[in-house]
Amino acid sequence: MISPPTNPTSKEQGLRVAALICLIDLLLTGGAAFFSNSLTILSDFFKEGADFVSVLAALITVRLVNRNPNERFAYGIGKLENLVSIGIGLLMLASAMFILFQAIGHFQHPEKAHGTLPGIIIFSCSSFFGFKMWFHNRDLLKIQSSAILASQSRLWFSKAWFDLMMASVLILAIVFGRYHWSLYLDPLASLVGVCFLLHGAWEVSTSSVHELLDASLEEASQLIIMRKLVDHFNDYESVHKIRTRRSGSDIYIEVFLGFDSELKMGEIQRRIDRLSLTIQDAFMGAEVNIIASSQS
């Protein structure tokens, strides 16, 4: 059974907390980058900027999507979630490219990083909160499918591991500072961060494009619909067509059925209502339409 959707307010509150954490992290990382010459910290400052813009855009999107549909957008504007998710993916890609170019320069002209202790503390704290936000978004995704929540979950996952990796590398650079090879730890860690960002950008963008093309629900959901129809096979004569799609976190299901031509409209409507309730029990919050049809 598909679980009921989360309260839109809880999703919005979660994004507000995330935006506040990102803003604090951005300010602290900016200060640490100003007092050090570490590429790792500087790169993270730009990445935090992209993360803050991403979370802020997601918050604004959720507020807009939660508005009631109007005459122009009768199905709501749930697709906006997918568009913003693609934008988040592009921001992650831009951050990765910036870090990559900076890392190449540091490999060509390595230098010892200094003033990194504040960065280590900030990275450690950021990693802790990053994992906490990732677990929070992951739990919400188990309750409700949402492009915004999916992109935020990937963003916080990559951010938490990135920060943990950066803190570890800065510690290693201090411990083994007397060795020449330690000069390459700073740009090397940045390349690991690039891999995280590129992976996150790819997953966010591809999943959002898939739903923008009005793809049907996943096969498991299709099977649930068919199972419900089989349970009530005496209520109709034939199944002509089934159409499903997502719009953001909203699900739309249309089933075209053939009924006995001798049945009265009142009886057909009762059977339609019964079938609609059965499918809605499996997809709580979904809009289910059963249409009497004589054409395949």
List keywords for this structure.
disordered N terminus; 296 residues; Alpha-lytic protease prodomain-like; 3 strands; 8 helices; Alpha-Beta Plaits; single chain; mainly alpha; 3-stranded mixed sheet; 8% strand
Characterise this structure.
The chain is mainly alpha-helical. It contains 8 helices and 3 strands, in the order αααααααββαβ. It has helices at 8-34, 39-65, 79-108, 117-143, 147-175, 185-212, 219-231, 265-282, and strands spanning 238-247, 250-258, 287-292. A 3-stranded mixed β-sheet has the order 1-2-3, covered by helices on one side. Strand 1 (238-247) and strand 2 form a beta hairpin.
Strand content: 5-15%
**Proportion of residues in helical segments:** 55-70%
Work out the count of structural domains. Answer: 2
Count of separate DSSP helical elements: 8
Mean pLDDT: 79
- Based on the coordinates given, report the CATH architecture of the largest domain: Up-down Bundle
Task: Tell me the CATH superfamily of the largest domain.
Answer: Cation efflux protein transmembrane domain
DSSP strand tally: 3
End-to-end gap: 29 Å
What Rg is obtained from the alpha carbons, in whole angstroms? Answer: 25 Å
What are the low-pLDDT stretches, counting only 5+ consecutive residues below 50?
Answer: 1-6
N-to-C series of helices and strands: HHHHHHHEEHE
**Top-tier CATH class of the largest domain:** Mainly Alpha
The CATH topology name of the largest domain reads: Alpha-lytic protease prodomain-like
Strand ordering within the main sheet = 1-2-3
Helix-strand category:
mainly alpha
| Largest sheet report | 3 strands, mixed
Shape: elongated
